[in-house]
Design a protein that fits this description.
Length: about 270
């Protein structure tokens, strides 16, 4: 993997686990996600106006498709965080996402997987499942929603990887944020939770930058390798959960984080 793509994926990972911790800490309300998407969308418009590149190049259907998948992603993520802790839901969903994306990308996008990269991906998957298994068994719905989040991660990863060859990332991500916010508006308006702005707005900025970095990484490296390296974020999830939400990671989760880091290093040099 090119060093630039690896760097983009790592920074994206740190930002990604940050906004997820903020969302979980805010009880994963629809209003939180709504403000997050609106704030990111505003920043996206500024980026589009700055770059001046507004050519769709026939990619609008792909942009609308990722909006639909992201709506499902956030709905499932909200339910997962309401039924389970960050240190289980986050690594479980991201781990399943990468394990599904790599073979899907090899099949649908004809992306080659080198032996060292494959070994790293296997380690990432093993480490993530160790992270998930390091806690007392939770309610069945927790794992069901977590699995659904993983499936949507695979879906939008494949769509985004293809779309990046058709349209500029700032325009693409701006469409995604505004489209998702529009679809979530009825749910956010019906919700009784208090409307807070500062934390979800900061989460929106982190989410947009994280997503934008990963989209640029898709332009210069295979989607499977990029997504797997981004799994450094689940390795940080137990630490973020302990510091932000006062969750206590188990030994198995700490071991899983080390295995994820080792697998990510193999992917970087694969």
């Amino acid at each position: 993997m090119p060093p630039l793509a690896a760097g983009l994926a790592i920074v994206s990972a740190v930002l990604h686990v940050g906004w997820n911790a903020a969302m979980r800490g805010a009880s994963a309300t629809a209003r939180f996600v709504w403000v997050e998407m609106l704030a990111g969308g505003v920043i996206g418009i500024v980026l589009v106006l700055t770059t001046g590149d507004v050519h769709l190049h026939g990619a609008l259907p792909w942009a609308l498709l990722t909006v639909g998948i992201h709506v499902g992603y956030f709905l499932a993520l909200m339910q997962a965080y309401r039924s389970g802790p960050l240190s289980v839901v986050y690594p479980g969903s991201r781990g399943l996402g990468v394990l599904l994306t790599v073979p899907a990308a090899a099949w649908l996008l004809a992306e080659a997987v080198r032996p060292l990269t494959l070994a790293g991906i296997v380690l990432v998957g093993a480490g993530l499942f160790s992270l998930v298994g390091g806690r007392r068994r939770g309610p069945l719905r927790q794992y069901g929603w977590t699995a659904l989040v993983g499936v949507t991660v695979m879906g939008y990863s494949l769509v985004d990887s293809h779309a990046m060859h058709l349209m500029p990332p700032p325009l693409y991500i701006t469409i995604q944020f505004w489209g998702t916010a529009l679809c979530l508006t009825p749910l956010a308006l019906r919700e009784a939770a208090p409307l807070k702005v500062t934390t979800p707005a900061l989460a929106g900025a982190a989410s947009l930058v994280s997503y934008l970095l990963i989209l640029y990484a898709y332009r210069i490296a295979p989607v499977g390798s990029v997504l797997a390296l981004r799994q450094l974020a689940p390795a940080l999830a137990p630490l973020a959960a302990a510091l932000w939400i006062r969750e206590r990671p188990s030994r198995a989760q700490v071991l899983g984080a080390i295995v994820v880091a080792a697998g990510s290093a193999l992917i970087m040099f694969g």
